[in-house]
Amino acid sequence: MTPRPSVAYWTGFAVVLALLIAAPLVLPEFWRRFVTEILIWGLLAMSSDILIGYTGMVSFGHSAFFGLGMYGAAAALLTVRPPNLGLAIVYGLVGAAVIAAFVAYFSTRLRDIYFSITTLVFAQIFYVIIFTWTAVTGGENGLTFRRPELAVPGLFSIPFTSNTLHWFVLAVVACSYLLLRRITRSPFGMVLQAIRENEPRTRAIGYQVERYKMVAVMLSGLFAGLAGALYAIQNKFAAPDFVFFLISGEVVVFNVMGGIGTLVGPVAGAAFFLLLREGFSRFFTEYYLIPVGLIFTAMVIFMPQGLLGFLKRRLNQ
Amino acid sequence: MLALDDVHTYYGKSHVLHGVSIEVGPSEVVGLLGRNGVGKSTTLKTIMGLVRPSQGRVRFDGRDVAGLAPHHLAHLGIAYVPEDRRIFRLLTVMENLRTGLDRRGVTEERKRALLDKAYAHFPVLAERRGQAGGTLSGGEQQMLAIARAMMLEPKIILLDEPTEGLMPRMVSQIRAIIDVLHQDGVAILLVEQNVPLTLEASQRVYIMEKGVVRHHAPAADLRRNAAVIHQYLGV
Amino acid sequence: MELLWDQILIQTVNGIVTGMILALIASGLTLIFGIMDVVNFAHGELFMLGAYVGVITLANTHSFWLALVVSSVTIGLLGAAIQVTTLRPLLGRDPLTTILATFGLSLVLQNYALWQFGPVARKIQEPFTGHFKLFYLEYPWYRIVIALLSAAIIGGLWLFMKYGKYGVWIRATTQDRIMASAMGIPVPRIHTLVFAIGAGMAAASGVLFGPLVGVNHAMGLDWVIKAFIVVVVGGMGNLGGSILASIFISLLEAYASLWVSPAQAVIVSFVVLILTLLFRPTGLFVPTPK
Lengths: 317, 235, 290
Known about the structure:
The N and C termini of chain A lie close together (11 Å).
């Protein structure tokens, strides 16, 4: 019987949520956008945490799921008139799901480092396909399109303002978080964690480890695709750069910096990284990755549990 | 020369050694007996730095050595022959021996002399010197493991169950080597399941049970008093 | 039909040349993995920095060969420094941490190069020009020389590993780190040595390859993936395997680029990787353990 989460937890959650809701009302446009981006990258990092933090599988392929969510949404927004929000999201999810199924099938038989390298290779395969199939994907230049309206079919349809877009993204991310939390605390989630702790023993007990892993990859891929779709909607473009494996690497950086296995840690990690990037860019222009990279490497060595790692037990209760 | 003082060692959460105290003097052959799983191998591993004790002291030649890396201990004069031999399977016999020879301050003549000594004691190794370690039989690998340790010219050799799984002929060869080493002034800490051999070869014997030393006596006493052996080892 | 035959011939030689360079990079990577279980994500950057050091040395001394030596030694030392500061503290921890640490380093090194040298590609001049007749075609001498040099370096490595004192120590440590230590081999120093050798070889590869492509801060990225693929296909830790795999994959890619663009030809190596992992996961050229 998993213990009820504490009052402290829910209070914390409510406070953070309130701050995020208030954000667009108090922050200048630039920072408002910044917070929205943090949420989207945070969602991507959360999806990655399902694999890294809960199942113990380090994936470098999340850029592929993210990218396909992005391009999937782009496809919906370019081919269906008028551009439809729901459809964009669905297309994005389907795109990511298909790829996730593909990756899941191949990679779950592999352990550790072989799995990681394979996911990296898959990400690159999709990158190459997207980059070179100019007719469909716009190649190097990517695709641009219009943002859909916030629509509930039959009820209303209003264009997004920057504030409502932010709240929409916040709503999606918050719900995703709650849903993922529910899943990690469910029996299914427990098995995933058992796999991370001791795979051979979990297998010996009788669990079909491969099946669980496949579901984990699909789940992870779906939410990553959702993040990609949101990104497309927010920014109105899709580009192959986001499918390049370095993006996956950055996602893993968010996870580790924030604390794997906590779900919120990666979001904090994303925020931390993006803030550092913003801050250092002022001084180092485009070479911000030098100090940020150094900080990250130092964290891996000296602070491997990440920023929120110390909260891991409490957050998972 | 070698002294363990109230050593506690854990494997993960498992408390394996509960305060082991053992001493080995220069050139002594000391036996360590006990049933399977009482912590005999762990004691040797703790001495050799393969596991760190959580408590207690390990002293060699007067200095504290607990927590030092194995290669330091090898330089100080402790050699280790593990239970599963662990020779370098893909290296030739000769190369296996070389790992102990290629130390600082050893002249070429000295290396030659040591090698010749090894081949003299273990003619089978001379025959197979160009063969990969993994192709040797179990007994031959045991010889190689001991010869390899001898190349370090150690002050003490930690022997973990050297006669396990060997034919009687090879067991006597091991017995002979222990004597040779003893005559050369090398101390030996001998962990064994073979009680008669241990009692014959050692001067003193410790008997362990559940992670502590329960009994300690000169081997001569134990040879006369079989009851103690029965009590702890059920033999 | 005759036209195709020419091209196949050229591509075969190209494939072997590229394969040898890739082999130089991959040997270092597989050695490092074999001995200390470290997947060095920064290996491509060592290759890239090697090329840059080559550019600078060449500019100052006008000697290609000196550039090769200086680059290998400098980057070898850099590798040693990296191993001691960043990887030694991680010994014994989860292998994931070394991947992450080297990934972080690769970001730092790449951007450092961008910062110092700018985004415009530099060129390394070939030490000599001139073509020779390969059957009825003109083929640059230089490429053949690269392949031979790479082979020589790898051959030198093999000899060192087989007969040198440190070679025996390295092989012993790779097989059984603990017993190697128990035999008095200073394992931490051996790790540093191997990392330095791997780094030096990657750097040499960068200088040798420099005249063929432009030298820029991102050149490591393509190679790091290829090198990983080669290492896995060849069998992790298996030196001979990675050399064979390098040539095999480079040949396949060279042939593939007869039909598709080079950017797409890389998919060949990805496919080989996936097939290997599915059917012979210990390595394509390694007999499957019974």
